[in-house]
Amino acid sequence: MEGMVSSNAAMIDVMIYWIISMVVIIGFDAIAVKKLGGKHKMGYKVLQFPKFIAVSATSLISLVLMILFKVSFDQIKSTTETYLGVPYFAFWCFYMVVVMRRIRAEKHNRF
Question: What percentage of the chain reaches a pLDDT higher than 90?
């Protein structure tokens, strides 16, 4: 059938999305450490819960999708595969916004 993707190819895409998500989250975490003055400062400690949510959610999404592809689906539509990255992007944006707002709040508190 044309327009169908095997579940193995979709699983590879999910793993790629997960790896990219972890790199983005770790990268923004490093930016937060640098801008907020270290891991032991209160401004950075506030970010631990949002980071936990972002990492846990992306991992849980990956796990659920991998189980669905392994158990339920033999093939999926290519249009459906296009939208697999949307939840990952949502959690990147969530963590990026939280980090940037925390950095901005800390700058206003210092001066």
Answer: 57
